[in-house]
Amino acid sequence: MLDAKIIALKLAGAPRAHAKAKAIADAAEAFNLQARGLIDQANKLVDRITAATGRASELAHWPSLPDSRANERVEAEIEEAERLASELKADVARLRQRAHQVRERPEIALAHAIERFLLAHMGDANFPGNQRLVDAEETRPPKLAKNETRESAVARIRNQIAELHAEMHAVRSAPIPSSEAFAIVEGQVNRLAVLGQPDVFQIVEHGQPGLEFARQDLALLTRNNEAGIHVQGQIVDTLAVVAWAFRDEILAKLKREIDQVADDANAFGRAERAAKLDELAAAVLAAERDEEAVIVMSEAAGVDQAIARRADADVRAVLGLAEAPQTVPPRPRLARRPDGAPRRVREAELIRPILPGNAGSFLT
Predict the structure, then answer these.
(1) Number of other residues whose CB lies within 10 A of the CB of residue 288
(2) What is the pLDDT of residues 129-141, one digit of tens each?
(3) Are 231 and 222 in contact (CB under 8 A)?
(4) What DSSP string runs through 54-94?
(5) Coil, strand or helix: which one is 107?
(6) Cβ(81)–Cβ(53) below 8 Å
(7) CA-atom Rg of the chain in angstroms
(8) CA dist 210 to 80, 127, 143, 204, 206, Å?
(9) Both ends of the chain: CA-CA distance in Å?
């Protein structure tokens, strides 16, 4: 579960997010304790079931007694033990079902999501050169439409988020433009053509026969009386030679093939796709921040009015987090001698400024 030390370390620069993360962690821990309590109750009932069924089995194996009333009492005790075991089994099933429902609370899933987010994020107060997590700028909560309740507002925003995610999926799944597709195949054919170019240097310079075409390694495994024999050698790289000899013709045919299947009207280039996904991701985060603002409004109205958060909500929206701009520590200035020439600087002189106190004195 979400550790208080992790919260304190990662959210040192975000006091509002720190308080909210701690509240969610406390709520998750409370629900976990509740679930464990229900499971403990169920386990105790299982022990009683075991005792009851054991007693019923023991009585069932008793020999028949001469006294009929004694036999009736034994049979009644067996029936009572079996009835008790049956009732207890139903109680165990109900307790386990309640424990499962408690463990499915979104607070528990959110606490795990916050922990994963904080552990994966580089915003550590001990490393000022990295991005740090800070409280996002507070904004006014979204205005509700006329006659719109907080519940309906959250439902509307969640539908908007779902639509944005669907649009992001469509952008990711969209084809690339025919121009980019042709650039890919053109690069492949050009690389093959370069490999397939024959070496005629010896013929031109020395008049020696022996035209050399591009070759590729070949490894075969043959069978001889169930024993495998590896055979290695080289053969002419036919595909490369063909690409060299008919490069333009191959590219022209490939372009026609690409043009036939291309869907440039719905295509996204690499840069355009990245920009569109960034735009949609920003819109999703903004919508999730609005969703969280309405949920906070519902919590302020009372516990009975509180709207449950989604287990898959963006941690940045739930905690109200933003990233501080990355700061790069200044490079040390090059020391110079009186004549202006660079002076050799000992390592201790460069390290001392970044060490706390006089920790660098032992290096001098």
Answers:
(1) 22
(2) 345 788 998 878 8
(3) yes
(4) HHHHHHHTSPPPS-HHHHHHHHHHHHHHHHHHHHHHHHHHH
(5) helix
(6) yes
(7) 37
(8) 102, 65, 83, 11, 11
(9) 46
H, E, C per residue of 157-183 = HHHHHHHHHHHHHHHHHCCCCHHHHHH
DSSP per-residue string spanning 88-106: HHHHHHHHHHHHHHHHT-H
Domain layout of the chain by residue ranges: 1-135, 178-266, 330-364
What pLDDT, on a 0 to 100 scale, did the predictor assign at position 129? 39
Contact 101, 34 (CB under 8 A): no
Residue 358: which residues within 8 A CB-CB, separation 6 or more? none
> Cα torsion at 287, 290, 294, 300 (round to 10°)?
140
- Read off the amino acid at residue 350: L
Determine the Cα–Cα distance for residues 8 and 30; give it in Å rounded to an integer.
20
pLDDT given for residue 9 in this prediction: 77
Structure-token pair, residue 326: 């990355």
Q: What average pLDDT does the chain have?
A: 83
Taking the C-alpha atoms of residue 168 and residue 362, their distance in angstroms, rounded to an integer, is 56
Which tokens is 14 given? 């975000």
What SS3 state is found at 116? helix
Structure letter (DSSP) for residue 238: H
Give residue-wise pLDDT tens across range 61-105: 777 766 667 777 878 888 888 888 899 999 999 999 999 999 999
The one-character DSSP state at 342 is: B
Mean pLDDT within 215-235: 73
The C-alpha atoms of residue 96 and residue 45 are separated, in whole angstroms, by 11
Q: Are 130 and 124 in contact (CB under 8 A)?
A: yes
Task: Report the candidate in 92, 17, 85 with the shortest Cα–Cα distance to residue 50.
Answer: 85
Quick one: tokens of 288?
């999730």
